[in-house]
Amino acid sequence: MLYHFFDFNHAMLAPVRMSAELMRTAYQHPMNPLSYTQGGRSLAASAEIFERVTRRFDKPSFDLPTTLIDGQKIEIEEQVVVEKPFANLLHFRRKVDRHDPKVLIVAPMSGHYATLLRGTVQALLPHHDVYITDWHDARQVPLTEGRFNLDDYIAYVREFLSLLGSGVHVIAVCQPAVPVFAAVALMEADDDPALPLTMTLMGGPIDARVSPTRVNEMAERNPGHWLAKTVVTSVPFYYPGAFRKVYPGFVQLGSFVSMNLDRHIGSHMKFFQHLVEGDGDSAETHRNFYDEYLSVMDIPGEFYLQTVDVVFQRYLLPQGKMVWKNPLNDQTYPVDPRAIKRTVLLTIEGELDDISANGQTTAAHELALNLPSDRQYHHFQEKTGHYGIFNGRKWREEIMPRIRHMIRQFDPDTDPVPPADLAMVSDKAPAQWNRSEHGIDAVNKRRGTSAPRSRKEMESAE
């Protein structure tokens, strides 16, 4: 009934929303004298805000028609490499003859579409051959396509890596850190020829016991049976995915907004001021951000519940108890991070990350016990939150160059980055990595001083 109530409420507001849109159009029309008064602009601004906060936003497009390589504009063509029920493998094919490192970005299945990583893709395109997992809205997937859980997610990652062949570099942004880490461990154990050369984990909950955030605490506090009855619901009959159990996007969006409610209210108040003052550039920046932020999709219910159970409640991966059930043969295999011996590991964390706190991602280094220390690296971005580690200026100018250098250090048989491209960003990454400054030693050093502690350590201290 939760989904039906939401849709009913949205439909009930349709006439009011239409009236607000008409009012906005009328009071912004250049032929209307009132559009030049503060009162008229205030009415138009109020109407636009109402219309936007009550609208359902469709899936955005990546809208990346070109990129710059060596100062020249190069066309980009989006190609679907493979279509699967719950995701497409999307390739941003650059129409240029270059041999750059092949990168697979594994986007999160956590409410937002893969287009949330538009800035991530955009910064990588001049220097890499980029692919991304484009997850589907579960309410659009017919029930006949079967289930999709965490085991299936890992299977998708393995299949996509196999399709791309050897020599791939995989980047997991946030939630996929656990399934990607698990997939690489399984591939190492199987001596899979498609094993990626490098693995970059960005702000992911490898060990959610470390410095628990509000997100972690909420997931831990609510048992699975309560979540199954409260936030997991059936898709209404009038959608293609009728009767599929899902964790609705609008529920997750409500959780996102409530975590930083003051910030969102303040942002909309500034948006109102920009509209009244006629600051079109600032208003458009707000629209662009919230058009993406408010575009959400449903998540398969079994995937959501299994992820909460495995990652945020029983912490199976850091405890060495995680297993993977292969959807193809229903056989169970242990996920043993100690099997990782070849794939280079880079972890990235933001100082102000309130989703996956400092220390949760670097836990991967402690688990990959047999990976040589000179193949383990870490980047800690100061004064940066969760979103900022994969989008924005610091991502483009400080984090992306470090990823690029690490990739090229371990994938030397590629074309060099043109000097013109190196000049485009403030390149603070060293040409060669130094273990004492950027590797696991730096992680341990920080942990020995002001490092975050696990919940168990904090409880013992109390």
What does this protein structure show overall?
The protein has helices spanning 2-12, 14-28, 38-53, 118-124, 150-164, 177-189, 214-221, 224-230, 249-259, 261-277, 280-293, 301-313, 363-367, 393-409, 419-422, 435-438, 440-449, 455-461, and strands at residues 66-69, 72-84, 87-94, 102-106, 129-135, 168-173, 198-202, 233-234, 245-247, 299-300, 323-325, 332-334, 344-350, 376-381. It has 462 residues and is of the alpha/beta class. The protein folds into two domains: 2-56 and 249-293, no CATH class; 100-224 and 299-461, Rossmann fold (3-Layer(aba) Sandwich), CATH 3.40.50. The strands form three sheets. Strands 1-2-3-5-4-6-7-13-14 form a nine-stranded mixed sheet, sandwiched between helices. The chain has a three-stranded antiparallel sheet with strand order 8-9-10. A two-stranded antiparallel sheet has the order 11-12. Helix 5 (150-164) crosses helix 12. The radius of gyration is 23 Å and the shape is globular. The protein starts with a helix and ends with a helix. The model is unreliable at 429-439 and 446-462 (pLDDT under 50).
